[in-house]
Design goal:
- This protein is mostly helical and 123 residues long.
- The chain has helices at residues 2-22, 38-63, 73-95, 103-120.
- Helix 1 (2-22) runs antiparallel to helix 2, helix 1 (2-22) packs across helix 3 (73-95) and helix 3 packs antiparallel against helix 4 (103-120).
- The protein starts with a helix and ends with a helix.
- Keywords: Membrane, Transmembrane, Transmembrane helix.
């Protein structure tokens, strides 16, 4: 149960992270944001990133072996990175339709998944 909760919280966290890091790039298409300067964009992104931390911190706390969870620190980090890339791919396909995912992007993502496999491989 802790493993599933950890993965779920990390997914939600990464959705907010992706919105905070890249969502502002779509602001220029929205009428309300046309006059916003860089400081305002940064403040909005920080506000979104707050929600990232609200989900990420509990995911790491409950998922970490040192706190009774099922994952090592390295496993948590590698899982977060793989989820981050996966969520980013979905985000870019849904919101940035001009971006094209090429074969080399998929190969790179495949190598990341392979890296996750090796990190989780038991000795």
């Amino acid at each position: 149960m802790k493993a599933l909760a950890t993965v779920g919280l990390l997914c939600i966290s990464n959705i907010f992270m992706t919105l905070a890091w890249y969502g502002h790039l779509k602001f220029r298409e929205m009428e309300w944001s046309k006059g916003l300067g860089l400081i305002a964009i940064i403040a909005i992104s920080w506000g979104i990133a707050l929600f990232e931390y609200i989900f990420q911190v509990p995911a790491n706390k409950y998922g970490f072996k040192g706190n009774g969870g099922p994952f090592s620190l390295l496993e948590l980090k590698m899982m977060q990175e793989a989820l981050s890339i996966g969520i980013f791919l979905i985000f870019s396909l849904l919101f940035f339709r001009t971006e094209k995912i090429a074969w080399n992007h998929l190969v790179g993502f495949g190598f990341l998944i392979l890296a996750v496999y090796f990190v989780f491989l038991k000795k």
